[in-house]
Amino acid sequence: MLSWPTHLSLQNYGWILRRFRDHFRMKSTFARGLFGATLLVVCCTVFVAFGQRSPVVESKPNKRPRLVVLIVVDQFRYDYLTRFGDLFTSRGIGRLMRDGANWTEANYDHIPTYTAPGHATFMTGAWPSETGIVGNDWFDPDAGKKVTSVTDDATLMLGGRPDQKGKSPRRLLCSTVGDELRLTDNDRSKVIGISAKDRSAILPAGRHANAAYWFNTDNGNMVSSNYYFSEVPRWVANFNSSRMVDKWFGARWDRLLPSEDEYLKRAGKDDVPWENLDKSSKDTNAFPHVITGGASAPSRAFYRALDYTPFSNDLLVAFAKEAITNERLGADDDTDLLSVSFSANDYIGHRFGPYSQEAMDISLRVDRQIGSLLDFIDARVGLANTIVVFSADHGVSPVPEQAALMNLPARRPSKDELLKLVQDGLRARYARKDRPADDYLRTFGSEAGLINNNFYLNRTALARDGIDLDECENVVGEAAMRMPGVSRYFTRAQLEKSPPPMSDAVARRVHHGFNPKRSGDVIIVLEPYNILFTLPDDPTDSRLTTTHGSGYSYDTHVPLIIMGKGFAAGNYAQAASPADIAASLANALNIQSPSCSVGRILTEGFVQTNGRRPRPAR
Ligand SMILES: [Zn+2]
Description:
The protein is α+β, with helices and mostly antiparallel strands. Helices cover about 35% and strands about 15% of the residues.
């Protein structure tokens, strides 16, 4: 039964429309009839209200939760919940699955599914087209070079080398939930982002965050930038001087479970040929992994190796607890926001693949690590005063060699071959004696003009030779189509002037990932299970065993769980997306939605205002 406000004023019309929209989907005729009748009554009341002075609406300020915690596990596919969920504890991810509202069909609706775009989406509720975070890196025409999502030469790193350039959220074009909280309460809310990766710490926190901290593999410090403050707080300096990080030098990463049986059953053999480790690391492809990075003492090589182990997640948990204590997060009624993104799962997934024993083990371990963090929050703030959001920035493709063995259409198209085909295509169409047409693709230093499956054309060269940009885009696209594994292409002209129909899911995702100022001129899409691949110069270097970035389910389908006041435990099979988190949080927190938010409010997972829980999703 719907509950209507006793007084109606003009402000209520939006509310009525939202209710109308939410309830229009009701399945039973009875419910529809009842709704129709209620709507009629409301319309009459509204009509009468027009002729009267609006009575003052007495509204009690909604008490907000004290703390919002966003927990991201980098590259954590949705199916890790179903493959390993029964092995999770009742404190960590297992607790979230039991006590949270769990959207089982949450997919990204953008391409490319990379770390920075995903992390920019959680708290803005927007696609890369609006956030501007179109990749981990892209070509910036203003800077005349390739930039990362958080590169900022105007800042300095705090905790790194004295002259080391810092990072900042300046390339993020939208506000976040944290920004809106701080706007709402005159900056009393505290917003902090933590991760091993700079982009994963900075982007969810947002432009007006108090701080972001990430792991610096140069010296093993948790660092920040002078974008936030002129020096890091004392507790951060103390944390770094404790050298906790160095205690993992020479640490042995073995399987968490005492027997290998569960691993063999769920992930297969440990030592398989497609896992290909950097030979210089002195590590092996199989358990146990001994973590030194090939060094004889803690050093850069060791800190880099640490990223590929569960111990870097332990470091983040310890640091997050220090942040909660020292910044007094959740200590008062002004809602604070803490974002913690665990990166080790991504590094390990890239190296060993999603069906490896290592991926299984790090999933079991991150459950325990999250459990430790949630227990700590429960003791200090109370989970009853906290909303916890759990999600991932993307999934990952199976290792092509492994998938091919199972007769899936998997392949590793070579990036160099693709570039050659496109260069040949451009020459065949445009080259003349006085016009070699060999600089039509942009290059970035030594790198040819292909980033994130986006080809960037050299406008200056095209203008010099009188080449039509739109036509040239099609020449590039058609040449790329000759490459086995390339399935489609989209041109800038097409995306800007006649966007493809939204019913075409691949096209929609490309469109959501396209920002006219930052994306390339031709975007190619690969067939499922195909990953574009560059051979390392040194054959002993590690190659990317597998990766992500596509619009296919293995890359787009991620967990989305919200646990806390206002959310009803249960599984919800309605289509959802991490872009829905921001609008849902804004609604639960009773604050303005972030500036670019396009996600829907996940009402099916809300506790209804009359105290009754909604029916479980069918
Ligand atoms: Zn990632």
